Amino acid sequence: MPIRTVTTQLLRLSPRRRRLLLIAADALLLPLAVWLSFWLRLAHPFTPNFVEGLWLVPAVWLIGLPLYALSGQYKGLTRYVGSLALYRLAGRNGLLVLLLALTGVVLRLPLPPRSSWFLLWVLLTGFTGAVRFALRDVLLSLQNKPRHALTRVAIYGAGAAGVQLAAALRLAGSHSVELFVDDEPHLWRRDINGVPIQPPQLLHERVAEIDQVLLAIPSLSRSRRRRITADLQELGIPLLQVPSVDDITSGRARIDALRPIEIEELLGRDAVPPNPALLGPGIVGACVCVTGAGGSIGSELCRQILRLRPRRLVLLERSEPSLYAIHQELHGLLSPGVALEPVLGSATDPALVERLFRQQGVMVVFHAAAYKHVPLVEANPLAGLANNVLSTRVVCRAACAAGVNEVVLISTDKAVRPTNVMGASKRVAELVVQASAQELAACALEQGRQPGTRAAIVRFGNVLGSSGSVVPLFRRQIAEGGPITLTHPEIIRYFMTIPEAAQLVLQAAVLAKGGDVFLLDMGEPVRIKDLAEQMVRLSDLSLRDSRNPVGDIEIVCTGLRPGEKLYEELLIDAESEPTEHPLIYRAHERAVPAAELWPQIDALEAAIRRQDAIAALAVLAALVPEWTPGAGSAGPQAEDADQKGSQASLRALES
C-alpha cells in the first residue's frame, strides 16, 4: 500500500484511536530504549549486566505508561506539537528514570551503572519525541494542498513577526514560504528553519517564483512603507501586510490576519511624538466640551481627550445617529472618575449652549461643528452660513458669559483666499473668534486683569478618511469597477491623518494666548491623480488608459466644481512664526474690529432668518473681499493665482 494512502488512513482515525496508536508506539519504544541503554554502553546486546537488569523491561511498562497518561502526554494535539511539548516530555522521562531507580533501590534489585540511567533518559526522550514530531509533520503535510496549488510567498521582515507569520502559514497549509527578505545586511545568507534570508534587491531576480509578498514589520514607519510599496509595485507583485502592533497585542487580530495596505498608511509623514508639556494642561481634571462630537475630527478629539482624563466630557451633536455612535464607543473607553455627557442639540442654539456651559461647568470648548462639503454648502449657502458662522458667535458669547477658560475653533485651509461659500463662511468664523478675543482683551485691560476666556483658531487642510474625503469616494468607485472621477489632473491637496490632526489641535490649544491663528504643518503636497493611480495599484488592479486600453479602472476628469481650487493654502498674509512644537506655527493675520464686525454679523443673521440668500451672500462678500459670489477657479487665471498663493504659503511656513 502506498505510503500516502497509509498516512491518509491515519488522518481519518478517530482521536481515541490515534491516542491508542501513540500508547502502542510508546509501549514498543520504552523497552527498546532500556535495551539500547545497555547495548550502547556495553557494546553487546546480551551480557550478565543486561540479564540482571531485565526487571527494567516490565517496570518501564508498569511505571512509564501510567505516568505518561496521568501527566497529560496523550492530551495534546499531535499536529500542533512544539518545543514546549518536548521540554515536558524530557521532564516526564526524567521522572520516569528516577522512579525506576527508586524502585530498584527499594526492592533491592540489581541496578545498572549510573551512566546507563543518563543514557536511558536520553533515549526515552529522543524516541518518544521523534515519534511525535514525525507524526506532526506527516499530519501537516497531509492537510496541506499539493505544492503546485500553494501560494508562493516571500516574507518581508525576518524579525519576530516574520518568524511567527511563517509558523502560522505552515500550520494553515495554504502558503509556501520561499524566502525571507530583510534590509539588515547581517541577516543575509542566513536562514530561518531552512528558508533563506536574502536582500530585497533579489526579488527582482525571483519575480516569477513569488505570488505574493507579505510585509511582516508591524511597527513600520510611513516613509519606509511608502518606499517598500513603491519598489514592489514596480515589480507587479501583490503586497499584503500583518496587522499593527496594537491590533496584535490587544488580541483584535492574529499575526496571520493579512490585509492589503491602505492608502491612508502611505500618505502623510512619520508620526512626530507629542510634546509632553503641551498635551494635557487645561484638560486633565477639567470639564471639556466638543461641539460636532460625532464628526470625523470631533470624534477623534473626544477619543484623545478621554485619554487625558478630564473630569467630564460633554458631547454636543445635532445628529442623533452620530451622537449615539460616539457615545457608545466612548462609554467603553471610560476611566474611573471620568464622566460622559451626551447632549443632542445644535451649537446655533444660544439658550442651549449657554445653559450647557453654565450647568456643566465647562472650562474648555473645541468648536468642531461645521458644514464642510464644498458642493453641498455651495448649493445650500444659508444653511452653511448659519451652521459655520452663527454657531461660532453663539459659542464665543456663551463661553464669555459662562466664564469658560478657552475656546478653540477648528478651521480649514479653504478659509484662505476662499473661492467657495464654505471657505468664506469659515473665514468669517475666524473673524468672529478674533473679534471676540479683541473684546475680551480690551475688557480685561480696562479692569487690569488677564482675559477670562482665551479664544484661538487652528487651521489645517484635508484629513484622511474624513466625511467627504476623496479617499472613501475613490475606494467606493474602485469597488464598483470604476471609473474614478477626478475634477482636474493637476489638482493638489495636503493630507494629514485624523489622529495626528486632533493631537496637534490639543497641543496648539495650550499655546493659545488669545486671538491666535495656529497653522498645522501638513507635510508634502499630494497630486490627487497620483493618489487615484496608487489606490488602483494597491487594489491589485490596473489602470485603463491610452497605453493600456484593456486595464481595469479608468480615471475620468470631469472639470473643477464650482468654488473648487487647484491648490489650497494655509496663510492669508504669508506671515507666520514657529512655536514650541515643530509642526505648529502661529500666524499674524488681519482681523476686523469687533465694532465693525458685529453689525455685519447681525445683518447676516437677519438675512438667514428671512431666507434671503442674495442679501446673505452680499454680507459675506463684504466681510471676505477676496471671495466673489459665483466665482470659481476653473479658469487659467484662477489656477495661476492658486499656484502662486500656495507657493507663497509654503515659503512662509518654511521660513
Written description of the protein model:
48% of the residues lie in helices and 15% in strands. With 655 residues, it is of the alpha/beta class. The chain folds into three domains: 3-143, no CATH class; 147-261, 3-Layer(aba) Sandwich (Rossmann fold), CATH 3.40.50.720; 287-463 and 494-523 and 572-654, NAD(P)-binding Rossmann-like Domain (Rossmann fold), CATH 3.40.50. Helix 4 packs across helix 5 (83-106), helix 14 (381-402) packs parallel to helix 15 (421-447) and helix 19 (594-609) runs antiparallel to helix 20 (613-623). The longest helix has 30 residues, at 114-143. Mean pLDDT is 78; it is low at 632-655.
Blueprint (SSEs and pairs):
Elements: H1 3-12, H2 15-42, H3 48-52, H4 56-70, H5 83-106, H6 114-143, E1 151-156, H7 160-172, E2 175-181, E3 191-192, E4 195-198, E5 212-215, H8 222-235, E6 239-241, H9 245-250, E7 259-260, E8 287-291, H10 296-307, E9 312-317, H11 320-331, E10 339-344, H12 350-360, E11 364-367, H13 374-379, H14 381-402, E12 406-412, H15 421-447, E13 454-460, E14 462-464, H16 470-479, E15 484-486, E16 492-497, H17 498-511, E17 516-520, E18 525-527, H18 528-538, E19 543-544, E20 553-557, E21 576-578, E22 584-587, H19 594-609, H20 613-623, H21 636-654
Parallel strand pairs: 1-2, 1-5, 2-4, 5-6, 8-9, 8-11, 9-10, 11-12, 12-13, 13-17, 14-16, 15-20, 19-20
Antiparallel strand pairs: 3-4, 6-7, 16-18, 17-22, 21-22
Helix pairs in contact: 2-4, 2-6, 4-5, 5-6, 10-17, 12-14, 14-15, 14-19, 15-20, 16-18, 19-20
